[in-house]
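Researcher: Please translate sequence to structure tokens.
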Amino acid sequence: MSTLTEKFRPARAAAPRPPKLPKVHTRKSAGDWVILVVAILIGFFIAVPFLMILINSFKSPADYNSSGPLTLPTNLYFDGIVNFWTRVNFPEKLWNSILISTVVAVAAVGISMFNAFAIGIGRVRGRTWIVVLVLLANMVPQEALLYPLYYMFKQVGLYDNVWAVIIIFTVIQSAFGTYLLASVYGTFPKELLEAASLDGASRWQILWRVVYPISRPTLSVLLIFFFIWTWNEFLIPLTFLVSNANQTVPVAISVLQGDRLMDVTTTSASALLGLLPTLIFFLIFQRTLTRGITAGAVK
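Model: Translation complete:
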């Protein structure tokens, strides 16, 4: 019985074999190797100054004088970091830099978004000339702005006040942000904006529910760059923050070097302490920066 059943059992259809995919050759060409070597060399030359700062920050002056700047320290020496920390009151300078950079970054991104929305989507008259004027204003060197700004803030009583630096850098950074975002908002699909208008959304709702969510990666990139750019600024804080209690980290480092004539190891320690906050900030928001830069690469 079993043999008859097996004899008349319908034959099973053979499962189709998956098509063979073409082999992808991953062999690098000569141009790829050249680009890789150039990238490694550039990365090496960028990393060398940071490595020298890190090595010499933990050397004693005697160790530095005997072995030079390129050798590893024989013993870890923390007096340079401690001396700089106490002599400049580093927590106070760190707070000033964090306050100025954070307020400038947030305010500049907000102002840039409102300006770009009015220019790029609001379609105001003469928007092209407005963007050109904003770009030209952003290209004015800071040296040309010192005396007019000094006179203005002296008259309003904001000289030697952190808010003077905050106002100046907010205007400077928002000029660049307005130019960049106006170009981005000008390419927004009109169908999406018209659909939101037909649904009864106001301009304010279109900004916060349509434009802001789509442009959030770009705004995040601007926020990170504005923070780092403001942190590293030197000339305007040096001019407008003359009292010791209002100085930022870069100004405190330079003023102390000229006033106390620090040794090389203490100078390296001061550079390391000034670099660490921005490095930590960059590492925390590295993924956000990568997502923002690559957001428009894939549709």
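Researcher: Any highlights?
Model: Residues 1-8 have pLDDT under 50 and may be disordered.
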